[in-house]
Every structure is written in structure tokens, then in C-alpha cells.
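Subgroup meeting minutes
Present: P.N., E.W., G.H.
Scribe: E.W.

1. P.N. recapped why we're keeping a running log of single-chain structure predictions: easier to compare across weeks, and new members can see raw inputs and outputs side by side.
2. G.H. added today's entry (149 aa).
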Amino acid sequence: MFLAVCQGLGLAIAVGLILGVVLPPIMPGWGVVVGAAPLGVLAAVAALSAADETLWPAIPVGVLGAGLAALVARSVAAGAARRQGDRLEVSYQAVSGVTAIVVLFAVVIAGVSLVLEPFSLVVFIALIGLWASRRRQAGRKHEGLRVLR
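Output recorded in log:
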């Protein structure tokens, strides 16, 4: 059961990473999670049903894995686009480059998760760390402006 859940988590993370960079950037964060969650659940259900396990763990695993991965991937892609400045053609190149890297990373995660199931736990913990780091950095971004008030 544990290995099947880990495999489902890896597949859900891969789905979330791809959807995080593909969904439009104007969509709010909760919309990205809502868009990625059903496909993450389906990926987790596929892994659990292939192992002939009960399917109920696929719901929390799919929602958490795909939702977190989509939020982090979207944040990384948006940060790459912002760093490119006002040059429109360079911005599209940066976003497409980041998209290709994230999709390649998702394929690697899915492939390794099929062979070495607990690998998805390492990726999930790394995504939590990256998400927390980006949230902290966003909070400190305007810290100097608050002092002037």
C-alpha cells in the first residue's frame, strides 16, 4: 500500500508540475490548484488501481501532490518571466525555456517514481521547502517600504 501511494504521489506531482506551467498566468492560485487536483487524483487512482489497493488514499494524495506542484511550478515560471523585464520576445523565450525544463523534470519524476517509489516523498518535501522559501522571500520583498510608514 505504501509503495503504491508513493507511486501515485509521484505521478500526481508530475501532473501538477506540467499543469502549473501550462495554465494561464492570469489564473489565481486557487484556480491552479482546482485545475490540477482532479488530474492529480486520476494519476494517483491509476497507480493505486494498478497495485490492486483501495482507492480512497488517491484523493488526498492527488490533491496535495498536484496542487502543491502546480503552485510551485507556476511561481517559478512567473518569476522567470518577471526577471526578464520589459523585453517581450525575451520573456517568451524565458517562459518557454522554463516550461521545457519543468516538463522534463516532471517526466523524470514520473519515471523514477514508477521504479523507485519512495523518491516521490523526497520530491514532495523539496517542493514544500521551495514553496515556503518563495513565500518568505515574497514577504520580505517590500519590508523596507513598510518601515517608512
